Amino acid sequence: MSEVEATAAEPMFSILKRGERDPWGPYSQDDLLALLNGDKISIHDYVYYDGIGEWKPIHEVFDVQEEITHFIDDGQDTQRVGIAFREVSNVVGPGESIYYIAVQAKVGLLSKTKQCVIVTDRHLFILTETRKGYELEAHPWKSITNTLMRDEGKGLGTFSILLGGERRTDIPHIPLKQVQRLFQLSQEMRGSVSL
Q: Domain containing 149: what range?
């Protein structure tokens, strides 16, 4: 495909932040994702491109929102799910599908949600928020020897993975419904790998 064809196929977007009068841009779709990841814009800000007809909220325009909505059935924080989805989408292999995203709950006034667990058909990912951004651990299902769940009480649980029988990683303070779904999916994925 020539550069001219690529430009014609990929629209350029202008952004209008809520509460501002002057639009930003133009940006490519990759630029928009970078701005979303960097919390420079929100999915509730507006976007415009040739052919759309009017300014619309970003979440109404992009497929990423449609894909995110089916991961929030168990009360997950939509913003955290969106971040996890974007981070993992950048590294999954061709044909790899994201099945579920669980989000660590806030457990006090000063605590922040720090981790998400993402299940795909090939990996279990752990996304950790750090001061410098996000760190993503990828564990192929064949490297996970077991998964465990524990009820912490008050509607929260801990999801644990065992790697090679030697290293255990715990992700505490996940809403219990999400821990149960993680455990169920992890058992199915591990079972399909061993066949």
A: 74-194
| Residue among 66, 97, 96 nearest 81 (CA) | 66
pLDDT band at 66 (very low <50, low <70, confident <90, very high): low
Residue 15's SS3 state is: strand
In tens, the pLDDT along 103-160 reads 998 766 565 668 999 999 899 999 998 888 889 999 999 999 999 999 999 999 999 9
Report how many domains make up the chain: 2
Q: Are residues 128 and 42 in the same domain?
A: no
Q: Are 161 and 149 within 8 A, CB to CB?
A: no
Same domain, 128 and 169: yes
Residues 85 and 153 in one domain: yes
pLDDT band at 8 (very low <50, low <70, confident <90, very high): very low
- CA distances from residue 160 to 61, 148, 173 in whole angstroms, order as listed: 37, 5, 11
Among 61, 89, 105, which residue terminates a domain?
61
Cis peptide before 172 (omega within 30 of 0): no
In the DSSP assignment, the letter for residue 142 is G
